[in-house]
Amino acid sequence: MRNVSSGNGAHTSLLINASQRVLFDPAGTFVQDVMPERNDVLFGVTPRLEQFYVSFHARETFYVVGQTVDVPPDVAEQALNLSLVAGPVPKANCTRYTSRILRQLPGFEGLRQTWFPNKTMEDFEELPGVVTEEYREDDADDKTLALAEITAILRGGP
């Protein structure tokens, strides 16, 4: 997640498509009752739930940069296992923990371990085959409003 006005990074997470599709959301604030969570790992991440997660973070003051790269199944499984033992993550450590996981994976050894989301994003961009997309919304800056709307939809409300 990046600040619209400054471009500064604000949060880092890692979607892992292995034997399970999980989202490592270190020190995250996405609270919902559809995806089980353990130690900052959200389980059962469908494409629809992934979109809710992205939408929760995108608003008039922040946008989401998504970077994807295909990896062999054994690398994805290793990322899953590393994420399961990494948390819970203290506040403000999201990029530090995510970059530490990535550095342990074959093909990602050159990524720096850092506190700064933009540095991890820049390093990731250099990997072969990376696809980068931006997602923007113009919702109010208050994430609790987005969360209330998402929660109502997930519970079958309006």
Describe this structure in words.
By secondary structure, the protein is α+β, with helices and mostly antiparallel strands. It has one domain. It contains five helices and seven strands. Strands 2-3-5-4 form a four-stranded antiparallel sheet, with helices on one face. Helix 1 runs antiparallel to helix 5 and helix 2 runs antiparallel to helix 3. The chain starts with a strand and ends with a helix.
Which terms summarize this structure?
single chain, alpha+beta, 3-stranded antiparallel sheet, 35% helix, 158 residues, 4-stranded antiparallel sheet
Q: Outline the biggest β-sheet.
A: 4 strands, antiparallel
Order of helices and strands: EEEEEHEHHHEH
Tally of helical segments: 5
Low-confidence stretches: none
Decide which structural class fits the backbone. Answer: alpha+beta
How far do the termini sit from each other?
A: 28 Å
Q: How large, in whole angstroms, is the Cα Rg?
A: 15 Å
Biggest sheet, spatial arrangement of strands:
2-3-5-4
Helix content: 25-40%
Number of domains: 1
Multimeric state: single chain
- What shape does the CA trace take? globular
User: What is the percentage of strand-forming residues?
Assistant: 15-25%
* Mean pLDDT figure: 93
Tell me the total number of β-strands.
7
